[in-house]
Amino acid sequence: MDNFTNTNKNRRYKAHVSIFGTTQLHLKSPYMVAFWSVAFPGFGHLLLSKYIRGMLLFIWELFINQKTHLNSAMVYSFMGDIESAKAVLDVSMMHLYIPVYLFAIWDSYRTTVDLNKIYLLAERENAPFNTFSIGALEINYLDKKNPIVAFLCSLTIPSVGQLYINRFVLGFFHLVMTVIIVYYSHLLEAIHYLLLGDISKSTSVLDAQWLFYFPSFYFFTIYDAYTNTVENNKLFEREQKNYLKKHYQPAGFTIMKGNKVK
Amino acid sequence: MQIYATFESSNYIELAITKLEEKGIKDIFAVPLDNRTEERKIFDTIHQSDGVTFVGKGMGLAVIFSVIGASRGFVLEWGPIYWGLIGAISGFALGVLIDLYIYKVYKKKKRVLKGKNSEIILIIDCDESQGEVVEGVLWEHLALGLAKIKNNQEQTNRIIENV
């Protein structure tokens, strides 16, 4: 059940609240979005709430990187072992990687520029949108949340920050991906041995190919949760202002002159 | 009598308004304020967010530094996790420092508070007998400040009644 049904009388809407999350347009830096696409194809699109495209690119990256051993090659390169880097790369698939990678970066950049324009138009039009949704599976509504809490939640396990702000689609996706990446990279085992003080065992148990998905993934979930909390709060405030102006500014109201009393 | 109260924008103000309406007080006027230019906060809080995040560059550099740190960690003594963490923390710190520098030094003059600091003024017109109740409701729902205004005429009447 929603509190707003689209009347098709408006041209653009700046947000939509559904049981699966709050989707909103807001101004973003195209460079920041492009950067996240560089860090991991798909992340830029996820920031833009283009989930299907983002998740497809993410899964594609996972698949093609596993096939070409790009992460391993990267680790060898940083270690200065260029020969091993060359040897580990699978050339047959490598050239499939590059066009999609560059497309993800370019596409997220130009989409951000476009959506920023759309946002400005939607903001000026100020059309009413759905702000409350209740259904058999979930409840979602505009509300204020604390960005610091979103930040701290995300620090624990990727996906918790997204769940905190009801970003359900990403929360679920991130949780599944976290389990996969942590399991195959043996990250938690490595941390376990580090805590026991056995550094060489900790290093040997790690799988470099899988481990190197983790940094960009981990920091992305923090960034995504934090910025979206801030933007959701701003959306809440603007919507409330509109509501109060519309319903609580009666024409006949006069201000009383007098003295302040206790 | 009129009662003025200021609120931060949150669900509490709507709770207060609906509670007053339940009590039969219908003469309510709300004035959402626009924002002013102000010293930027470094971290956005639930009350304050100015649209510029100090997390963006930090997270970006944390990714880059931790990837390189962890790679090098495979050959360094402390191993990939410690070096990855060192990379992440130093990258994040560097990013925040760059942002701080940009906003403290570079853009000092141009600051406009975009997001909020929004407060709402609520004016409630009610009978003097309801004053206490309205005041109670407003305080209960986290009013920031509150003042009751009485018409001079009302005051004189009261003084006469008392005499």
From TrEMBL, chain A:
Keyword annotations of the record: Membrane, Transmembrane, Transmembrane helix
Keyword Membrane: yes
Chain segments annotated as transmembrane: 31-48, 148-165, 172-196, 208-226
Protein name: Uncharacterized protein
Organism whose genome encodes this protein: Paenibacillus prosopidis
UniProtKB/TrEMBL annotation, chain B:
Residues that span the membrane, as ranges: 54-75, 81-103
Record's keyword terms, sorted: Membrane, Transmembrane, Transmembrane helix
Protein name: Uncharacterized protein
Source species of the chain: Paenibacillus prosopidis
